[in-house]
Amino acid sequence: MLDSGLLAARVVEDPMVRIMPRLLAMSVLFLATQTAAPVQAFDVGVRGGLYTERDEPFVGLELLSHVGHRLYFNPNVEYVFVDHGHFGTLNFDAHFDLPVGDAPYIWVGGGLALSYFNPDGPGDGDTDANANLLAGIGFKTGGTVPYVQLKLITSDPDEFVIAAGIRF
């Protein structure tokens, strides 16, 4: 039987658990001060898919804010369901919508990724800074935008991510 005090201590010691809410809050504050117009807000989205190098599924949350002519800031967090540990990324991405008309939306972009892996057991966790390169396509359907995105995280080894999501 697992001691609840030990479990609580482990969760508190996990730097990813402490850092993620703070970084997400900082991203929200940044977006609140960077909107292109006073009435403009940001979109919220959910995504899921596959980290192909690890061959493991992930889920994620994102914010999307228009910051300039066809330029968007898209911070997001992803949790990868790995065996024997915890793995997640915090991504500060931006993308440029290509001028293709009304629909679909096609974008290319990149950004900074902070990836964190903490193996089960006595091993220490590892946090790395990496670069993201991405491309995607989305479709306006009423008030939502379903999309597919491909992302390369430059790490050792590189990680290719296939994602599908929806923005509200």
Keywords:
Porin; eight-stranded antiparallel barrel; 2 helices; 55% strand
How would you sum up this structure, described in words?
By secondary structure, the chain is α+β, with helices and mostly antiparallel strands. The protein has a single domain (4-167), classed as Porin (Beta Barrel). Helices cover 18% and strands 55% of the residues. The protein is built from 2 helices and 8 strands; from the N terminus they run ααββββββββ. It has helices spanning 4-13, 15-34; strands at 43-51, 56-68, 71-80, 85-97, 105-119, 126-138, 145-154, 159-167. Strands 1-2-3-4-5-6-7-8 form an 8-stranded antiparallel β-barrel. β4 (85-97) and β5 form a beta hairpin. The longest helix is centred in the N-terminal third of the chain and has 20 residues, at 15-34. The radius of gyration is 17 Å and the shape is elongated. The N and C termini lie far apart (42 Å).
